[in-house]
Every structure is written in C-alpha cells, then in structure tokens.
Design brief:
Blueprint lengths: L15 E7 L7 H18 L4 H8 L13 E7 L2 E8 L7 E5 L5 H7 L3 E12 L5 E14 L10 E6 L3 H19 L3 E6 L1 H9 L3 H4 L2 E4 L14 H8 L5 H16 L3 E3 L1 H9 L3 E8 L6 E4 L6 E2 L2 H6 L5 E4 H11 L3 E6 L9 E5 L7
Parallel strand pairs: 5-8, 8-9, 11-15
Antiparallel strand pairs: 1-2, 1-4, 2-3, 5-6, 6-7, 10-16, 11-16, 12-13, 12-14
Length: about 375
C-alpha cells in the first residue's frame, strides 16, 4: 500500500496536535455527542501544552463530516495554528484520543487505509413498485472505489434505467462504461450483483481480461446512500482478510527472500536499521499492531534508532517518540510501501518485517 496521502502531514515541523474522534451519525442527537467529544479533545490538548491556535485548527474540523451517515470517525492533525491533514475514518476509533507531540500519531490512520483494494461495483436489478411488485424496467448502478476508504469516500455513483426488453442492446453501452471505469480505477475486482439474467448478459459484453476479475454476489438490497459505498456490506464480506495484488506480491517476495535469508528482515531492530539506511522497499506490519515502546528520532524521517546512545554514536541529536509514530514517519519519508497482514496469517517477530530494496547490500 502506497502512503502518498500522508505526505502533506510531514511537510512542516512539529509539534503536532493529533486527534482521533468518533463522529458517527447512527445515534440519537449526533451533533450533541460530537460537540461533547470536541470539547473533551480541546481540554486534553490544552492540558498537554497545545497552543490555542493549533487546538482550534483541530476542533474546527471535528464534526464537519456530518453529511456522511452511519458509523465512521475522523483523524485530524494540525501544527503551528494550521491544519496539516484531515481524513474521514471508515471505522470510528476504539476510543477518542488527543496527543500533542513532535512526531504525528499517524499509524492508526494508515492502518485504516489497508488493504486499499481498488474495485468497481455494479448492481443491476429490476425496479419494483411500492409493495414489491416488479416492473419491466431495470436499474443499473456503477461505482468505483478503494476498499475500505470507499465507505466514507465513495466514487461517483452513476445510475441508468432501461426497459428490460432493451437490455441486450443497453448492456453493450453499460459494458463500455464499465470498462472505462475499471481501467481508470485499476480495479482488481469487479463486483457484480443483481438479476442473474441481466448480469449474465452484461458479463458477455465485457472483454476477457475483465471477465476474469468478476466476483458475483447475491444481494436483495441495492438502494444505497450516495455518501456510502454501493453494496457496502457485501464488499466488507468479500474483502475481509484479503490483500491487494501489490501487497500479495510483496508478501510473496518477502517470504521467498526470508527463506533464502537474503533480502528480508524481521523484528523491530532489523526493521529500524533497514529504514534508517533507506533500504526498506516495503514494511510488513501485523494486524493487530501493538508495539508499546519508544524509539529515538531526529529531524529527518530516516533518523531513528533503538536507543539515544545509538543515535549519539551516529552524530544525531534525537528525542524519544512512540515507536508506531516514528516507524510510519520513516516509512512515508523513505517511500516504502506498507503491507498490513493479519497476525494469524503471518506472525512476525515484534509484529514487523521489511522487504529490502537491495537484497545483497550490507546493513
């Protein structure tokens, strides 16, 4: 998974005010609940020494995602009185958190982007009258996205209504639109739902290269909120525990090189060394990831170590930072990929591993 979306966060020096907050709308009086959370964050940040302008830059954004229905959250970062980054979270955080720190607390946000699978979704159903009586019309919805962020940032939904008697011809045009959508989004899966006859006719009009990517799902529901992903529940089931094609390939290279004991390392110490040398092509992190310790960091993202003495030996002025914050900053700063893989599928020492750019280079 590429982490380019985090690049703007590190464009300015710290300290940063960082907030993760539940802004779900599936409860009574959601605005009142969010306002209480906002005030609590403000109090927490002030208690940690955050200045009024920086705290205000965070709290002004909290709750501005009110147009998104259902369960979700926000991650908000500010520094020196200015907003640095704000993103909606597909899932609300387990608990609200506020931190004023030199290195932004960005790991939870990065983990919420995984597995970052690009897809296209198509639902084709018979239109029904109130009461459930089917009509002679078909309704077709198309949408592309990246899972799971599509829950809160879905692509544009396009909808067509077609007489069932004209579907064979209309399927040619819909297939052409779907090809363009899949190609633009680099969809790894084309998720197709709805009337069996109608979706089979559509499938026949697709080129073979796309037919191989079709995943058919049965669903009795096709109405969707425009601010949520089309077939959200079905996508959640389909993509649960799955990696993107890029991450699958990276994981296989990691396993092959680990078996040869060349080009892959495992554990916190080895991963830190690989990042400090700019040698990590990808960092693998177990889900759940819970590394409750600190690393020592310098001004540059690559400047990190296990101890202050280690950093002093390298001639680097350093300070302590939470390991997860230091690691994600180094991953972004060195252009490495992040691969989030379930612990049960591939347990790693300390929950960490690295695929190296230069397999035979010494570290």
């Amino acid at each position: 998974m590429k982490l380019t979306f985090l690049g703007p966060l590190y464009a300015r020096p710290g300290p940063y005010a960082c907030a993760y907050v539940d802004t779900s709308r599936d409860l009574d009086e959601p605005d009142r609940a969010v306002d209480l959370r906002r005030r609590h964050l403000e109090t927490e940040l002030a208690a940690q020494g955050a200045d009024t302008a920086t705290t205000g830059a965070v709290t002004q954004v909290v709750g501005t995602d009110r147009d998104i229905p259902g369960r979700h959250g926000q991650a908000v970062f500010a520094a020196h009185g200015r907003l640095a980054l704000a993103e909606e979270l597909p899932e609300p955080p387990p608990r609200d958190s506020a931190r004023f720190t030199m290195v932004p607390d960005a790991m939870p946000l990065a983990l919420q982007h995984a597995p970052d699978i690009p897809y296209a979704a198509v639902a084709v159903h018979r239109v029904t009258r109130p009461g459930g009586t089917p009509t002679s019309e078909l309704e077709v919805d198309l949408q592309a996205g990246r899972w799971p962020t599509a829950k809160v940032a879905p692509g544009r939904l396009t909808r067509h209504r077609v007489a069932a008697s004209e579907w064979r011809q209309a399927a040619v045009e819909v297939a052409e639109e779907l090809v363009g959508l899949a190609d633009r989004s680099k969809a790894e899966a084309i998720v197709l739902s709805g009337d069996h006859w109608a979706r089979n006719a559509l499938t026949r009009e697709l080129p073979a290269r796309l037919r191989k990517r079709i995943v058919a799902v049965d669903s009795d529901r096709w109405d969707t909120d425009p601010e949520r992903a089309l077939m959200e529940d079905e996508l959640a089931h389909l993509f649960r525990g799955r990696l993107s094609a890029r991450d699958q390939a990276g994981t296989q290279r990691f396993l092959a090189r680990r078996a040869r004991r060349s080009g892959a390392v495992e554990g916190l110490a080895a991963t830190v060394t690989a990042l400090r040398h700019g040698q990590a092509e990808a960092v693998l992190i177990n889900d759940p990831f819970d590394l409750d310790q600190q690393l020592w960091v310098g001004v540059a993202p690559k400047q990190l170590g296990l101890t202050q003495r280690e950093m002093q030996a390298l001639g680097i002025n350093s300070w302590a930072a939470p390991a997860d914050s230091a690691l994600i900053r180094a991953i972004v700063g060195t252009g490495a990929d992040l691969i989030v893989i379930p612990h049960d599928e591939l347990p790693l020492d300390d929950g960490l591993g690295a695929l190296l750019r230069y397999p035979d280079a010494p570290m």
